[in-house]
Write a structure and sequence with these properties.
Elements: H1 17-28, E1 35-44, E2 47-55, E3 62-71, H2 74-80, E4 97-104, E5 116-119, H3 148-152, E6 163-164, E7 170-171, E8 183-187, E9 191-194, H4 200-205, H5 209-220, E10 228-232, H6 236-247, E11 252-256, H7 263-269, E12 273-275, H8 284-290, E13 298-301, H9 306-314, E14 322-325, H10 340-343, E15 347-350, H11 358-361, H12 363-370, E16 380-385, H13 389-397, E17 404-408
Parallel strand pairs: 10-11, 10-13, 11-12, 13-14, 14-15, 16-17
Antiparallel strand pairs: 1-2, 2-6, 3-4, 3-8, 3-17, 4-5, 5-9, 6-7
Bound molecules: nicotinamide-adenine-dinucleotide (NAD), lauric acid and zinc ion (2 copies).
């Protein structure tokens, strides 16, 4: 994806000879064997085929996962559609999943076969020398760069893929997850271990979109009670921003979308004002400012449209309004506004995965769900079965009334 492009040039990870020998010995001793299974392989633009693939055993600090549930996300579709100039083919897409550990590689601690795991495309190495993971500065971000270069290149940290096709040819990984496959291999630092009782279909929601929206409200803009909020785009991401804002006690929540079918769910989750830009003949930022006195405390773009990002910034409150870019724009797009908007006190920021650190901060979300403190079921609007179901899920996602289509293998 375009947002990950710059990451791909930084690959330098090398596995020491001694570690490579350990992997080899592990394999011949039979600790883990290659697995043949079904996967939906992206062969080229809009060419998704169910094939038998071979998934190699996990290498050092790697984990092989049995994928049980996969939720489709627009980033998968965007890459499949060929719009991402950096998209790699053939590859195994998918990055929102509920999985179970099948086997672990050399040096993996804290994970064992049978553990339930949400693979996270933002890893968390947690090492003392990682300024992005370790306090004090590591508290500010979830953007651990430990494996970003190789992840962006569609390979594991040692520079190779664990997937091969029936002819023995390499298939690339995607976002460090590749969950359109019955089995996948990920880095151990990408594995968020969740409770033994976690439902794996719900786990898939927390691998990306829904966590992102909740975290944008809770971590990135840190909404406080009584504030006003405007959310542009009411897919799963925007709706979860609304849900997170309501849970923080926001007093007024504007829900903005061109598709009025989205308003019912937005209201159920806490929206107080539903606004369709098509109903007005002036810019939507003027409409929202007109419905308030000075604008809105916290605003979010959840569309990926750069004009909407501008509108979200420009309806933020004079003096202190904060606007968060959550949507991912198409490759090459740029944002603009008059600098006066910032001079007069608005702040423009963005979020990746809602600022959540995968391994330490995602598992508590599932605990909250299981304890009834966090409602999540409403995001699953469509269900399909088998790896083939990913093809049906792609169609569902295009329909306009799908929040998340969950495919169970
Ligand atoms: P979605 O397509 O389901 O929802 C987008 C919504 O925006 C739709 O309801 C659509 O009708 C609405 N919309 C489109 N154009 C609009 C406009 N001009 N004005 C108002 N509404 C408009 O997508 P989603 O799954 O909810 O994801 C939303 C965005 O978040 C995507 O760009 C996705 O790539 C991005 N995303 C970002 C992160 C991150 O970490 N930053 C993570 C996940 C997803
Ligand atoms: O570490 O520089 C990096 C890469 C961070 C990737 C953040 C991606 C955020 C957008 C994800 C889109 C939806 C899957
Ligand atoms: Zn780190
Ligand atoms: Zn996603």
């Amino acid at each position: 994806m375009a947002a990950l492009r710059s990451a791909r040039v930084l690959c330098s990870a090398r596995v020491p000879l001694v570690q490579r020998c350990c992997v080899h010995l592990g394999q011949i001793r039979g600790f883990a064997s290659p697995i043949k299974c079904k996967a939906a392989v992206a062969r080229g633009v809009n060419d998704l085929r169910v094939e038998e693939v071979t998934v190699a055993p996990p290498g050092p600090r790697e984990v092989r996962l049995k994928v049980h549930s996969n939720a489709l996300c627009h980033t998968d579709i965007y890459t499949l559609s060929g719009q991402d100039p950096e998209g790699l083919f053939p590859s195994i897409l998918g990055h929102e999943a509920g999985t179970v550990v099948e086997s672990v590689g050399e040096g993996v601690t804290g994970l064992k076969p049978g553990d339930k795991v949400i693979p996270c495309y933002t890893p968390q190495c947690g090492e003392p020398d990682c300024i992005f993971c370790f306090p004090p500065r590591g508290k500010r971000t979830n953007l651990c760069p430990k494996i970003r270069g190789t992840q962006g290149n569609g390979v594991m940290p040692d520079g190779t893929s664990r997937f091969t096709d029936a002819e023995g040819k390499e298939i690339k990984h995607f976002m460090g997850c590749s969950t359109f496959s019955e089995y996948t291999v990920v880095a151990d630092i990408s594995c968020a271990k969740v409770s033994e009782t976690a439902p794996l279909d719900v786990c898939s929601l927390l691998g990306c979109g829904v966590s992102t929206g909740l975290g944008a409200a809770w971590n990135t803009l840190n909404i406080e009670g009584g504030s006003s909020v405007a959310v542009f785009g009411l897919g799963a991401v925007g709706l979860s921003v609304i849900q997170g804002s309501k849970m923080r006690g926001a007093a007024r929540i504007f829900a903005i979308d061109m598709n009025p079918k989205k308003f019912e769910m937005a209201k159920e989750l806490g929206a107080t004002d539903c606004v369709n830009p098509k109903d007005y003949d002036k810019p939507i930022q003027q409409v929202i400012v007109g419905m308030t006195k000075w604008g809105v405390d916290y605003t979010f773009d959840c569309t990926g449209n750069v004009e909407v990002m501008r509108a979200a910034l420009e309806c933020a409150h004079r003096g202190w309004g904060e606007s968060c870019v959550v949507g991912v724009a198409a490759a090459g797009k740029e944002i603009s506004t008059r600098p006066f908007q910032l001079v007069t006190g608005r702040k423009w920021t963005g979020t990746a995965f809602g600022g959540f650190k995968g391994r330490s901060e995602v598992p508590p979300l599932i605990d909250d769900y299981e304890a009834g403190r966090l409602k999540l079921d409403h995001y699953i609007t469509h269900r399909f079965h088998g790896v083939e179901g990913n093809l049906q899920a792609v169609e569902a996602l295009h329909s306009g009334d799908c929040l998340r289509a969950v495919v169970t293998y």
